[in-house]
Amino acid sequence: MHVIYIHTHDSGRVLGPYGYAVSTPNLNALAKDATTFRQAYCVSPTCSPSRCSMLTSLYPHENGMLGLAQRGFTLDYDKHLVPYLNKHGYHSVLCGIQHEAGWYLDHEDGSKALGYQEDITTSPQGYRQEDLVYWDQKNADQAVSYLNQYDKTNPLFLSFGMYATHRRFPDKIDPDIDVNQCKPPYPIPDNSQTRLDYARYLTSAKSADSCVGKIIQALKENDMYDDAIILFTTDHGLANPFSKCTLFDSGIGVSLIMRVPGSTTKGKVVDELVSHIDVFPTLCDLLHLPKPSWLRGISFVENFEDETYAHRDEVYAEVNFHTSYEPIRCIRSKTHKLIRYYDETYLHMNLSNIDESLTKDYFMDHGLQDRLKYKEALYDLVYDPGERNNVVNDEAYAEIKKTLSYKLDQHMKDTNDPLLYGELPVKKEYKVNKKECLQASSKNKDDYVSLGK
Fold first, then answer.
1. CA pair distance 50, 47, nearest whole angstrom
2. Which CATH architecture group holds 315-451?
3. Angle 279-287/47-56 helices, nearest 10 degrees?
4. Which end of the chain has the least Cβ crowding within 10 Å, N or C?
């Protein structure tokens, strides 16, 4: 059984199969022939920690990927899915982005560190960031060529990773996209500035969907489609304020669409909670492979026969570093969420953890730097799905708060979370902005706690 892992950057659930007016006909078609998880969540809403947690089935504070790989953070790569599948007879191939080792455009060193047996990625040199969606297209063509000649001697693990929908978005908007008919997703205000920004996202998403279509068509033409597990996902929410790098659902909610041959839930949706950390053990069950001892996740293999099966009652997520230090933990049940901010010395917005954009500019013009975070927040997701009414001190929610607090404390103890012992250290190899810094890419050395190696 082949495994085809297709992934975007920073897309959350803002795609066609999740009800958004996004031009993704190929993803929509895949969803109709696959199982779509409507309540899937990443483990950490920042690129490298999210991907590493899914591909090791360990939380960031366990696997070591506390921040971005290109900023000096690393992990035990022997626990990554790629070497595990290599040991079990798979031929592993990287095409495009990975974000678990080093700089994500440095595909050669990254693929070696992760243990891929082949790297067929085309060169990213010569592209502006705004044009890297064209690099995605080149990589899709390369993957198609590879599938056309693959001899199938060994089962294939293909990771096809896209730059889309990472910022910077394309600055040339697709001609089929009307800026005036765009509506930015919650929690972004609707105005000319944010509509233009969102139109660029939609352009990036449309390009990503085209790449997905090429891969799916090649699998069908080479008689691999019905002998492959196809996994489509993204790392976290959109790169907007109050989304990426936050533990709101707009940050941790992700697309997860899986096509499993023989599944009886193709074309159906699963509304039960699923965490990225559960993907590795689920693949083990689907492939009939032994589970490594370190896996934290819980298999949801039953969902490919019963879309109503609930394999967990809550999911956990965390932030440690993105560009600056911002330690946060949360527990989310089906109906409530508890979020804790562990840096009481700085409850302002960590502005460098918010990607530069027209949308960020709009918020900055309206006092984003003066907004404060709650030390602790409890949200009723039934009556407040937007997570804006903190009921942590409401006596009507006292028992719910007590229960979630106990479970979060227990989770931190069970996983030996270092936050139990105080502030996380900034090692000399980490590149870390000061909390007060406005931009991640600041050229002022005084804006950094550590410049890294």
1. 5
2. 2-Layer Sandwich (3.30)
3. 30
4. C
Q: For residue 2, give the H/E element and its range.
A: strand 2-8
Distance of CA 267 to the CA centre of its chain: 23
Closest among 108, 63, 106, 224 to 157, alpha carbons compared: 224
CATH number of 2-312: 3.40.720.10
Residues in a beta bridge with 338: 331, 378
pTM above 0.85, yes or no: yes
pLDDT tens for 215-251 read 999 999 999 999 999 999 999 999 999 999 999 999 9
Q: Are 196 and 179 in contact (CB under 8 A)?
A: yes
**Alpha carbons 169 and 186: distance in angstroms, whole number:** 19
Sequential DSSP letters for 301-339:
GGGGT-TT----SEEEEEEEESSBEEEEEEEEESSEEEE
Residue 253 contacts residue 242 (beta carbons within 8 Å): no
Euclidean distance between the first and final Cα of the chain, in Å?
42
pLDDT digits (tens, 9 = 90+) for 158-204: 999 999 999 999 999 999 999 999 999 999 999 999 999 999 999 99
- CA angle 9/368/255 to nearest 5° reads 25
Question: In terms of C-beta density within 10 A (0-12 exposed, 13-18 middle, 19 or more buried), how is residue 268 classed?
Answer: middle
CA pair distance 328, 311, nearest whole angstrom? 25
CATH 3.30.1120.10 in the chain, residues? 315-451
The CA distance from 38 to 371, in Å, is 31
Strand 448-451 relative to strand 431-433, pairing: antiparallel
CATH 3.40.720.10 domain position(s) in the chain: 2-312
Rounded CA separation 365/230 (Å) = 43
Q: Would you say 284 and 1 are in contact if contact means Cβ atoms under 8 Å apart?
A: no
In the predicted model, is pLDDT for residue 453 greater than 90? no
Q: How far apart are CA 243 and CA 236, in angstroms?
A: 9
